[in-house]
Amino acid sequence: MAKTTKNYAELTPAEIKDIRDALDSFIAVTSDQFDACAEAVAAVAFYRLQRHPTWGRNATDAQKSVSYKHWKGVCHRCHKHVERGEAKFHHLTRGVPNQHVPSNLVPEHTSCHDDEHNVLYGSFDKGSPVSKKRKKTKIDNA
Ligand SMILES: [Zn+2]
Ligand SMILES: [Zn+2]
Fold first, then answer.
1. pLDDT recorded at residue 131
2. SS3 state at 71
3. What is the helix (H) or strand (E) element at residue 19, kind and residue range?
C-alpha cells in the first residue's frame, strides 16, 4: 500500500510554515545534542539537502548524463545542439518525486538557462532566483 504524499506545490502556506518551524527545532535540538553551534549543524544540513541521493536538490553527474543522452544533446530552450561540457541541467518542476529523471531534467546552454530563469523570475541570480514580486515561500527552480 503506497502512501500518497504531497508535492511541494500541494503544500499550503501554513504547512510550509510548520515544516520550517520543524526544521528550526531540528537544528536547535541537534545543535544541543552535539554541542555544535546552529551554523555548523545548518552547514551539514545544507550540504545534505543538496546531495542526498534521492531527495537532494542537485542531480548527480550520472543523472545529468542520462538526461543528456535522452535529449540527444539538444537544448530544451533553443532546440540547438549543446555540448555536454557546456550544458546546464534545468529542473522543470521542483519538490516532486524522481525530480532528476530526464522527463524533468533537461539540458540547456548556459545562456539559455540564464534566460529561462530570467523569464521565470526576472533575475540573473543563477540557481537561486529571487525577485521582489515573488513570494519567498515559492521553491527555487534551478
Ligand atoms: Zn540553447
Ligand atoms: Zn534551471
1. 43
2. coil
3. helix 13-34
Domains observed in the chain: 12-51 (no CATH), 60-142 (3.40.1800)
Distance in angstroms (rounded) separating the CA atoms of residues 59 and 3: 25
C-alpha cell recorded at residue 74: 539538444
Distance 35 CA to ligand 2 centre (A): 37
Neighbours of ion ligand 2 (CB under 5 A): 90, 142
Q: What is the pTM of this model?
A: 0.74
Burial class (CB in 10 A: 0-12, 13-18, 19+), 4: exposed
Q: What pLDDT digit, counting tens, does each position of 114-141 carry?
A: 998 987 665 444 444 444 444 444 455 5
Q: Rounded to the nearest whole angstrom, what is the distance from the C-alpha of residue 6 to the centroid of ligand 2?
A: 22
pLDDT digit string, tens, across residues 73-112: 999 999 999 999 999 999 999 999 999 999 999 999 999 9
Output the CA 65–ligand 2 centroid distance in Å: 16
CA of 87 to the centre of ligand 1 (A): 9
